[in-house]
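Table 4 source record.
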Amino acid sequence: MDVTFIIFPRKKTMMKQIIMLFVFIFSPFIYNTQAQTTIDFNVDADWTASSSGGYTSYQTNHSYSQSEWTFTGGPALRQSTTIQDGEPATVGNTGRAWRIRDNSSASFTATHNTCGTLTQFGFDVRRWDGSPSPNFVVQHSANGGSTYSSTIVTINNTYLGNSSVYKTFSYSIPVANQVHTSANQFIVRVEAAGSTERIMIDNFTFTKATVDNSTGVSNTAVSSGSSTISWTNPATFNNIIVVASLSSITTAPADCVDPTSWVASSDWNSPSSVSSQMGSGSSTEYVVYRGTGTSVTLTNLPSTGILHYKVFTQLNPWSDGVSGNTALPVDLVSFGGEVKNNIAELKWVTASEVNNSHFEILKSKDGMYFEQIGSVSGAGTTNSYTDYAYSNVMTGTKEYYQLKQVDFDGKFEYSNVISLGESADPASIIKDQASSIKIQAEGETEIVILNKSGSIIYQNSVSENIILYKNIFPRGLHIIKVQNADNFELIKWVNLN
């Protein structure tokens, strides 16, 4: 007797997939420092003259822009090579420098025109000559010039050692002022503090921070759709951001992004989109954590696809990242069969596999005691749908079949049990055919098809049998629910058409 192919709903089983984990962690207090950068003012194309006069005249708005900084001074001019008071007017008597006028209102400013973490700034400075004494104070601002620090140093004859030779000034920025998350926040100011002699400034220097990768990245085995991801977090790590998606992460935080108001959700059923908060990335990329802790537990994880993670912090620059992975249980999409000419033709589909060695096919006469009758090699590790089949000569009128999936490391799990043959369990009212799905309606029948995200893609109420052609539905995993007065059936269907 021929029996129509039946797909049975089943519990979670053994297929596994990879969660890719990438970690980017930054601390404004624990870091490495880059090599010091020097701006020597020697590139003429980077100078912009005041509209009121040329470079050799004292103006209030000459400017120089190079390597993240913009410089301006006033009244000031562009100093060329010469000997003044017996010493070179520029460092090494080459290139250019700034000359700040002997004016009680004169100033020179350097503005950092991006965000980042600065640990040092400095410059070379000399006087025009020794009389009168120079009288300039050096200060910095971390809030765009709203307020300035107290005087760091006063540039006068005493500081310069009563010499017109260039002296190098360097300053280590206090920790509280090192980090700025938007452009034009950090400003260095050299300002006259009264009557003064002229000074020259050359070779401005600055140092930015870089970050080591985090250590100790790990994650627990997935249990009931949850997994905890952990990382080493010294107390000074600040504002860690975890982004997750079912596809590769396209988001990269902009240099000056500030995530302090972002909303995060570690519940996959209630995601918080990153695109509306980070200003880039896909609407299917989610912020699953924001804080200063050492771990996050993700719940209601999906059972198919690959989960990608990236962990950032709010500040620039970012670390290079540390990767890890873990196996996540997924559903065996379908397992069923039909009888043709006394041959049991078994079919099953997996959505993804990790380290899958093989399937053992088990058979029973009574549904209790099973024995192995064959084996089919697994696909190893794959994130694609895989179809399997196995045929067996039936020796009875009704027989039971089950799959035993075995990993390369010997671990195994069992599938659900199906029965085939005469007096088998009642046939499904949902018939999965080669190019269509046939619904056998018995009275008023409600049909609902959902995609793997739970969204309804088809809904209808019929009182007669209906055929749904597969090519009108998207490829992938779907759930079909059919209900009438006497029956309710739910199956998972993978559309490969």
